[in-house]
Write a structure and sequence with these properties.
Elements: H1 2-18, H2 20-46, H3 54-71, H4 80-87, H5 96-120
């Protein structure tokens, strides 16, 4: 999220300096993206914990993390930067390498988060009655 929205804000400010109309478009895209992510994350993180023991608490935490990773992917919104690149084609837009770097960095972080999630939550915790949850 820091890369997507922090980098987007920096690029938005730079774009606003060169062209206020284009900067306003970037600002609108950032607001749309932040609202979309918040609509998913806030309910997932603020919902009451449904747990009776350590096992169910572990399952609840796993499902919350999975919901956040699968349904609130802010890195996808970096592709809005590509629309700005595509509309100026065939001429190269200002700060083209920074925009491409921004997109690549955000998508790489998304891939790293997905890989980390798969390693961390490969198996659900064992239940208290001796059976293994699968």
């Amino acid at each position: 999220m820091v890369i997507t929205f922090g980098g987007g804000a920096v690029l938005c400010a730079a774009r606003f300096v060169s062209s206020p109309e284009a900067g306003a478009g970037w600002a609108a895209a950032l607001v749309l993206a932040a609202g979309s992510v918040a609509l998913v994350l806030v309910p997932a993180l603020r919902a009451p914990v449904i747990a009776e023991d350590e096992t169910s608490l572990g399952v609840d935490a796993t499902l919350r993390a999975q919901s956040a990773l699968l349904f609130a992917q802010p890195a996808v919104f970096t592709l809005l930067a590509w629309i700005d690149v595509a509309t100026t084609w065939p001429s190269v837009p200002p700060w083209f390498p920074l925009r491409v770097g921004y997109i690549v960095l955000a998508l790489a972080m998304l891939a790293a988060a997905a890989f980390s999630f798969r390693r961390r939550y490969r198996h659900l915790p064992s239940s208290s009655d001796g059976t293994v949850a699968r």
